[in-house]
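G., the chain you wanted modeled:
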Amino acid sequence: MTNQRDRESATGRVFFSLGTVSMVLAMLYFGKPVFVPIALSVLLAFILTPLVSVLEKWKLGRLPAVLLASGLAFAIIGMAMWALVSQVQTLAVDLPNHQQEIKSKLESFQLREDSTVNRLSNMFNELFPTPGAVVEPDSPDDPIAVVEEVTAPPPTIVVASEPESPFTAATEILLPVVEPIANVAFVIVLVMFLLLRREDIRYRLISLMGDAALTGTTRLMRDTAERVSKYLLNLLLVNAGFGLWFGVGLYLMGVPYAPLWGFLTLCFRFIPFLGSPASVLFPLLVSVATSTGWTQPIAVLVFFTVSELVTGNVIEPVLFGKTTGLTPVALLVAALFWAWIWGPVGLLLSTPLTVCLVVLGQHLPHLRSLKVLLAEQPVLDARLQFFQRLLAQDFMEGRRVYKQYVNEFGQERAFDEVLIPALSWTRIERGKESISAAEEQFIWRATRDSFILDDKKHSDASEEVAVVENKLTDPEDQGNDEAADHGDPGTLNTRRRRLFGHPVHHESEEIALAMLSQLVGNDCEVELSTTKELPSQVVSKISRSQPDVVVLSVLPPGGLPQLKYMCSEIRASQPTVPIVVTYLGKMKDYDELLVRVREAGASYLTTSLSQTKHQIDVLLKEINQADVNDTVCDRSRSTESPKSNVEEASHVS
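Predicted structure as tokens:
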């Protein structure tokens, strides 16, 4: 009954999600006349916000700063549109004058009659004649010819339409003109209001989200404002600079209407991937049509290619970082989606709108799927990648993931955040019988080899350094030894401390202790036992070696009964030795577990190898300091005793 309810609930959630997505798509598609001006206004407000902030810092008021910034922006846009329209009109008038150049270029591409392409074309025309053609041989010896049948055109029927009313005629004439003007006016006014009342809008959005989501909403709005504003401003600067550079280059090369092509390049570069190559087609075709040879078109193509490579590999990485934060596939799919929803305007706005969606997905839990699908980041983190590669029996790729994480975050974090989770998941999957015993053993070996190989290299290098240091011993060390003999506390030498590690109940805990040994091996001597040894044997070894610290590792599930037993046995044998319990797994209540292990005889409880290393470092420092203090006290007593004997002898005499 419960399973059936769960299935029905899951089915209901799926249909609810599909219905929500369908409703949103319908709103975006049919609400294009409303949403497009709003989207343009919001994006322009994001672009102008840094400029308004700079003007306000120059002691301008909010209203003068907004008027100056928005007026400058819309003046530039208006001048650019006027120049674009005038250039297009001039091009439409001037292009027919170059028919001779176009005809000569086309003739240079014509193929010879005996070429392979022409022969194949004639063969297909003979085999598959066009409809309405009559096949007639010119003579018995001539090949079959295809003659098209000439038919008289059908008579034209003209239907007289009713005369339109003056109001209808005026509406048809004015509506195509009034609608764009009204949209432009709406965008201008909305941008100015967004800039003037941005704090009020921010507080209204926070109030809409609720007081409980104050922190998340604040981070969302801050990240959106900073990231989107910076991205849009940098994108506009890069595209404007590239368009200006390309237009000036075309002008110097003599390509007609260079300002027009520079402006079109600026606009087309907002389209991801496809816009930049498409922007060079228009000036290239005009150059082919108007130039007398092929030198100018080739120069245009080379100039554009070099400029694009420099911009994409030098300028954009400096301004944007490594990437825009979106995957290439996401950019292409987003461009297709927004072009389908909003047409050419959506194609231009696809990248900024997708960046906004990624920011929303990073801060809103119910939109996290947008972040997973669109954001350029590993869908699987390093620990999942490592475990997945070991499940696939790919040791080299798994070790590469581990090494990359070590290089980026260090060995301690790599142990705790990559290898230990892999050991824990292996135990869980083996408990569910999802993996076989052979697969489990492969993961154990691969995990151990991932860091043991590096440990061997490090040990060899350390031995070489130690040999060199022994050969180059400074004679001043003898003086330090003499000072130590005379009781100088600053030069007292302490013996090398010993640590004993024991895995409580599973082989995976041996691997965890081997990682710990690699972390603390430079600070103390480490002796490790195995799960094959009996508890009595382990206690005997601890009694013989007299370690300064004992570490018991536990990797759940299970292990608590064995842990409590070992703690009690070790405490009975060594009442003063510190016992550190390393619990490498999730726990319900840390305080409750700490009480239980201390009742069994443990001294400290840690939940990671980095915490264990820190606790061991603290304990070793305390032990060394205690030994130094004891040595100083003993030597001070030994120097005072001869003086007291002399005083007693003089008193007796």
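Residues 143-148, 461-493, 646-653 have pLDDT under 50 and may be disordered.

Shout if anything looks off.
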